[in-house]
């Protein structure tokens, strides 16, 4: 039995893509995994258009149910918790359910983000309430979840909070949104989330709890393949989500998390260093 077997990870946005891959690789590393996302079952219709110019309800591959099956196939327990990052009372209930069921959350992966219009629109065309949704889902929801899990982590003297950041937090787009660039909501919300680790690491110094940014780089997720070609992004240029999952599982179990606390781990260079790609 390894020292991480039976510890608990909580992963948001775990129905597909990077979140799903991380949840499965954490299970292979010994964690029981609580998963949240909006999509409960395959084939559900959820809005995933990136622009206000149209709606897109086509079902995307992936669901909490499918992720749960893969976690259990790895020999670990799965707790499936439908949740919307825009619903704060729901998020509070979800964390309460995990703690009541398993007694602890040893690792929080803030991976989920706002999916919907405003991602690939010009500022002059973007209603302010959509920018608020980006900030609510991509910044305030992770902060809420972090606030909810930290007290017990600090009490136990160990824990790990990972925030899935993005290069858009510190780089300018190559072009405007829809032409290979990205919209204001995504950039400003990822920029705000990116600043959390550096501040929080100082607050947590000496507690045994680490907080790390993980930058995945360009990843060939299911949504990237289905939606983003029209905006100038070629999913075939991205790495598989499993690469990021392996790096996250490595960070969670290698003993190196404290060294990375307050810093940004770029997943693809680390994956090459570790021989994962």
Structure description:
With 277 residues, this protein is of the alpha/beta class. The chain has one domain: 3-Layer(aba) Sandwich (Rossmann fold), CATH 3.40.50. 42% of the residues lie in helices and 13% in strands. The protein has nine helices and seven strands, in the order E-H-E-H-E-H-E-H-E-H-E-H-H-H-E-H. It has helices spanning 17-28, 64-73, 88-102, 128-156, 184-203, 222-227, 241-253, 257-260, 267-274; strands at 8-12, 32-37, 78-82, 107-110, 159-164, 209-215, 264-266. A seven-stranded parallel sheet has the order 3-2-1-4-5-6-7, sandwiched between helices. Helix 1 links the parallel strand 1 and strand 2. Helix 1 (17-28) packs parallel to helix 2 (64-73), helix 3 (88-102) runs parallel beside helix 4 and helix 4 (128-156) packs parallel to helix 5 (184-203). The protein is globular and about 50 Å long.
């Amino acid at each position: 039995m390894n020292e991480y077997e039976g510890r608990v990870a909580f992963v948001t946005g775990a129905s597909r893509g990077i979140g799903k891959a991380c949840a499965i690789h954490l299970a292979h590393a010994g964690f029981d995994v609580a998963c949240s996302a909006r999509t409960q079952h395959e084939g559900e219709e959820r809005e995933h258009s990136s622009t206000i110019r149209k709606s897109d309800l086509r079902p995307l591959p992936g669901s909490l149910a499918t992720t749960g099956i893969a976690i259990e196939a790895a020999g670990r327990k799965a707790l499936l918790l439908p949740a919307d990052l825009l619903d704060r009372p729901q998020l509070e209930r979800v964390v309460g359910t995990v703690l009541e069921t398993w007694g602890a959350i040893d690792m929080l992966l803030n991976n989920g983000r706002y999916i919907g219009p405003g991602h690939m629109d010009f500022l002059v065309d973007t209603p302010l309430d959509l920018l608020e949704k980006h900030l609510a889902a991509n910044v305030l929801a992770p902060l809420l979840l972090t606030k909810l899990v930290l007290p017990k982590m600090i009490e136990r003297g160990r824990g790990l909070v990972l925030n899935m950041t993005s290069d858009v937090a510190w780089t300018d787009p190559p072009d405007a949104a829809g032409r290979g660039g990205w919209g204001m909501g995504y950039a400003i919300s990822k920029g705000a989330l990116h600043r959390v680790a550096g501040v929080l690491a100082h607050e947590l110094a000496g507690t045994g709890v680490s907080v790390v940014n993980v930058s995945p780089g360009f990843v060939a997720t299911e949504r990237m393949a289905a939606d983003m070609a029209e905006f100038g992004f070629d999913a075939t240029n991205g790495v598989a989500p499993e690469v990021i999952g392996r790096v996250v599982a490595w960070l969670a179990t290698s003993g190196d998390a404290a060294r990375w606390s307050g810093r940004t781990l770029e997943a693809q260079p680390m994956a090459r260093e570790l021989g994962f790609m």
